[in-house]
Predict the 3D structure of the following.
Amino acid sequence: MKILQVGSENAFTLLDVPIPTPEAGEALLRVDAVTTCPQWDLHLRHNDPMFPGHQFHYPYTPGQPGHEATGIIESIGDGVTEFRIGDRVSVWRDPGHKKPGCYAQYVVKPVTDLILVPAKLPVEATASVELAMCVGATFLMLRDRNLLKNRRMGITGLGPAGLIAAQMARAEGATEVIGFDLTPARRAYATERNLVNEAIDSRAVDPERFPSRPGRPTIDYFVDCVGAKASVQFALDHAAEAVALFGVQREDYILSPRHYSVSLCGYPGHSRAAAEYAVDLITQGKLNLAPLVTHHLPLSRYAEGIDLLERQEAIKICFHPWED
């Protein structure tokens, strides 16, 4: 089988290796589609660890950083009763980058990391379930705090996570979803597909429509999908009730006296419940992951796909490991 291995300085190799065999509690997944995680792919390309204290080692673990995948179960190990051969599943959790990833034709996964998805949907509509799970964890937290229904929501960052957050907010009864992004193409993409009610450059906000603190903000809550200091500070200044941090935090920011009435919500962590929440929304037709994918490529064109992400000419690349 073919499996991708990322090297340093934009190098990569398609290795030819034996098909792995699932052990007890595992399943062999034929990967029909795997989508990029722009954070991991781009940080890996530039040897710029995403999390403090993390370090990349090249060549990287074969198949990694691919972890958003969907496909068919080809075989199962001893003791597996949750799935049958032929089931359509997606990966909802990555057990770590020391194990082979999903940039491959086949991958073995613990069945606890897989979840059934609707077989009738195109592969691009279920490949990114893992990201939807991540965002879903934030929304389950916000729902528990009664911060969603009949609220006006703001999203900072209209990348893949932001487009999922917008759909989840609507599914939870948001009255209006407003996206804030610096990139004109992303703002246009989100509005043209009716994923947000409006998309605005956060550097050119009308202060009368969207007053900032110490005035009275008109957006009830924000989900920050960027993680940069300026993005979080913007959300804190323009939220009436709460800011949920989804983007990976890499900088310090300032909580001032003007923020005294804003609830700052950290990330609650991954969970099976969040994966089930995301798949349930997909099944109901309230969450469509297909618009996250702007390009389809074979694995042999991996570098080309990451180039597109780097130039912000793509939102997600869907790689098809069985195509030449």
Observations:
- Helices lie at 38-45, 129-144, 160-171, 184-192, 229-238, 272-284, 302-310.
